Amino acid sequence: MLTLYYGAGACSMASHITIEESGAPYEAKSVALAKGEQKGEDYLKINPRAKVPALKLDDGSVITENTAILSYLALSYPEKKLWPKDPAGEARCISHMAWLSNLVHPSFTHISRPERFAEDASTHAAIKETGRKNFWGYLQEIDGIIGGKQWVQGDQFTTCDPYTLVFYGWGSGSSCRCRSSRTTPPGRTACWRARRCARSSSVRRASCCNSGARLASRR
Ligand SMILES: N[C@@H](CCC(=O)N[C@@H](CS)C(=O)NCC(=O)O)C(=O)O
To answer: Rounded to 5 degrees, what are φ and ψ at 6?
Structure first.
């Protein structure tokens, strides 16, 4: 059976929703990030980079990184149609997930963990503010990408949707300041989110395990 290691409120929610969507039998193991469990001896054997998500396969090997886990799940359960069929669609799906991983997520880390970008505490307020500005810009870009479409990639629900949903949730977090200062997240994204939540119970099941104020104190 697959084992998914996740953190409450973390980006691992993308993998959690997708594993629910895939129908794969799995066990979910919570890693208490706030308590530093990701840096403990046991978890470092799973992922030496001390991050969630991680997916342990039946043979004991481990896949890390949302982009890789989402691809693995979608390709392993093709009947669930979580992955585009044509090469251009596949490439666009990878492109969107790479963008979320390489730019959107790190912009939020500037808000939540400024000390990772500069040791000098006097710079942290400026790093956070730049993170907020960039993150807000990405939320707007997501709004434009969704446009009038049903899903991120058009008519087909793909792995791009649960991954994008993570950042919607973070953007509407109470202390991200996006909401208070600029009315966020953008409107079309909110409609897409409502569709996403109505699609199936996968969000609810994954969200139950993912609820928590993990980042609240750091935002
Ligand atoms: N690019 C990675 C990012 C993983 C990541 O940064 N996970 C965070 C949670 S959102 C984490 O485990 N943080 C724990 C820490 O940095 O100590 C992915 O998408 O899987």
So the answer is: -140, 165
